[in-house]
Amino acid sequence: MPLILGTNSIKDTTFDVERSLRFDRTSSERLHFTQGSGDDTTARRKWTFSTWIKRGQLVNSSNHQYFFGVGTYTLIGFRLDGSGEADDMYIQVGTGSSAQGLHTNAKFRDPSAWMHVYVAFDSTDGTAANRIKAYINGNLIDNAYGDYSMDQRSSITQNDEDDFVGNSGDVINIGYSTNGTNSYFDGYMAETHLLIGTTKAHTEFAESNNDGIWIPKETNFSTSDYGSNGFKLEYKQTGTSANSSGLGADTSGNNNHFTVSNHTSIDQCADTPTNNYATLNFIDNYYTPHSLSNGNLKQTTDSTSGYAPNVSTIALSQGKWYFEVKYVSRSSSDNYNLIGIRGSQITNTNYLGQNQYEYGYYSQSGKYYTNNSAVTYGNSYDQGDIIGCYLDLDNNKLYFAKNGTIQNSGTGISITDPASTPLGHYFFAVGDYGQSLTIVNEINFGNPTFTISSGNADPDSHGNFEYSPNDGGSSSFDSSAKNFYALNTKNLAEYG
Q1: Is position 277 within any domain?
Q2: Which of 124, 212, 291, 436 is the most exposed place for a label (fewest CB within 10 A)?
Q3: What pLDDT does 284 receive?
């Protein structure tokens, strides 16, 4: 399963990406901008697109996911291949009243990691195979991924212009394409560029660090490099924007600000390619058809099948860590929610706490479950409550708080050392204890999907929480339990 350990976390970067934008395809979220005049046919023979993405939901039989779409036919994203296999990368350019594309056999299905996507169109190149170039995380697709299921680059006539990029009146969509139904992207995007009339190398946008990890690179392009309709989206407030949140602000100097459709300010995220936050793991969901949305931070449990929880994309073996769960709703009078940690593999018939290496705080009774036994612990909780989970792996203790009040008078639950668990580490986990109801939870690893009324960061100023990760809120911990951290890769490199 895709997951993040300390060995692939990033501690130091020369350039930090400040913000990303979260896209929830079920909410039809997109940015859009109608191009004006200024990019002539000569300019439209070349363009460069670069962005960082982190996936949420994956493609299924009823949808494609395009994160860049212009007019009718120019697009980049994920879709089904001809054999019904999902999540191939698909690149298409509309030229000469037709569409020429590049469709990889490679699958891109990791929801735990950020990925750099670079595409350059250059119809002036004398070699047909060079008229569309694509790099994923610094790797040329030709070399990295072998044969294509579709490669139409040779059909691009030399000096053809793109019929849509740079064309006055055509709409540029970020997170969506009009080509196909239900084609919204799901996940996160950061550092999105479109340069029209020029091609820049992929190494102008990103580079390998000393550990061989592909990381963002600060760009210093001139406004003229972007052409008349090009843009740079940093998804942050700049004081000049298409909306009050700044989510659609173009910072290239062109002022090609995007209109924001269905996003809210809560979708502006600290989860970036230079500081990757945990989410729930979409891939480790095959035991149970729980639905994940809002960047894999909203869980809707299934009412007809197994008990298995969803778990975090980041695994932990040391350090002190904090996350929150807002218990949003339940579909019946039954109150069967479980929040906690998991240190072993779970089947769909196992609830959180059935195994001796699992600990689940139970909503109905306030007890916690481990080794299939209920242990008296704290107060019950219900819809509208926010549960804080404090994991201290320096002392092998676990604490829970209800609406900011630490339970059990601050006395922690003693847990098995992670090195002695079957997995050798723990995951944060959220699930239910009943097959006859639907429960909705929103998970906050420091990058919330629900409105935060007070705002609390960890000791390194990371994360945005309703309650304090530092002191247990209105009640005290064991004296050793202070200073818990948000679950992201910068903290993981430092403390994990």
Answers
A1: no
A2: 212
A3: 79
